[in-house]
Amino acid sequence: MSATVSLQPGTAERYETAATREPLWIKVVLIGVALAFFAVFLLLPLASVFAEALKKGWGAYLAALTHEDAWAAIKLTLLTAAIAVPLNLVFGVAAAWAIAKFRFPGKQFLITLIDLPFSVSPVISGLIYVLIFGAQGWFGPWLAEHDVKILFAVPGIVLATVFVTFPFVARELIPLMEAQGTEEEEAAVVLGASGWQTFRHTTLPNIKWGLLYGVILCNARAMGEFGAVSVVSGHIRGQTNTMPLHVEILYNEYNYAAAFAVASLLALLALVTLGLKALVERQTRRQHQESISGEHS
């Protein structure tokens, strides 16, 4: 024999409010700890980067950014991101669509492969490319015979960046597409839509904000990657140094003003990324609320 307990309207809301109600001093302490952590570990280091970068004035700051080696590092960083991000975009959408919308053998193995860069150190991933494409590697003799350069050149940097960044788009889209289900795609197919038409007119509008969110995170990681790129780049000044590597070289040479100047540019890119991330999160929440209200109406 079972008993059912019925709650009066509003009872659940009152219980929820009571469960989350805390004394004022607890709220003040928690907020104070959070703000202190933010100030000490985030705001203070960020402010010190810009302070050191501008320590010798705007002239020295601009000279450091327009230096030939710095400009080459900036262009290489942008080029690497411009290649790696679209590749990861295509892979992430394809992988997420396959995992979320279809059943096939090896599905769990594919998910494991997507998570692999999260569990492998970037330095190790760079060493893997050295093992494969290095002079003593698997394909090293063949590459040397045909005068093809992978390591210590742009292709190696792009490959290393693609490896460490390819989970971001897929991992952002998989739970989103799984939560949306397959009903709309199935309805589109029943109405005669092709696979491309189904993706373009049904799937893509539902995932556009999640897709943009993943692209933003992927781009931020691509521009700031250090470990894997450091192993495969060779640190050739003016040729294979990205911005993080250029900062390291300047700092090791005790050229602190120039090092912090380039670092401040990376910090500005990070702030822009955070702003775009916050905007996309707001649009995602709005889209989610609109979909919920549409279901209830």
Give a brief description.
This protein is an all-alpha fold and 297 residues long.
Account of the protein in words:
α10 runs antiparallel to α11 (195-224). By secondary structure, this protein is mainly alpha-helical. The chain has helices at 11-20, 24-53, 58-66, 68-101, 107-119, 122-133, 140-145, 154-165, 167-180, 183-190, 195-224, 227-233, 243-252, 256-296. The chain has 14 helices and no strands.
User: Low-confidence spans: pLDDT under 50, at least 5 residues?
Assistant: 1-7
Counting DSSP E segments of at least 2 residues, the number of strands comes to 0
Q: Please tell me the overall pLDDT.
A: 84
**Gap between N and C termini, in Å?**
38 Å
Features:
mainly alpha; 14 helices; about 80% helix; about 0% strand; globular; disordered N terminus
Layout: helices, strands, pairs:
Layout: H1 11-20, H2 24-53, H3 58-66, H4 68-101, H5 107-119, H6 122-133, H7 140-145, H8 154-165, H9 167-180, H10 183-190, H11 195-224, H12 227-233, H13 243-252, H14 256-296
Helix pairs in contact: 2-14, 3-14, 4-8, 4-9, 4-11, 6-8, 6-12, 8-11, 8-12, 9-11, 10-11, 11-14, 13-14
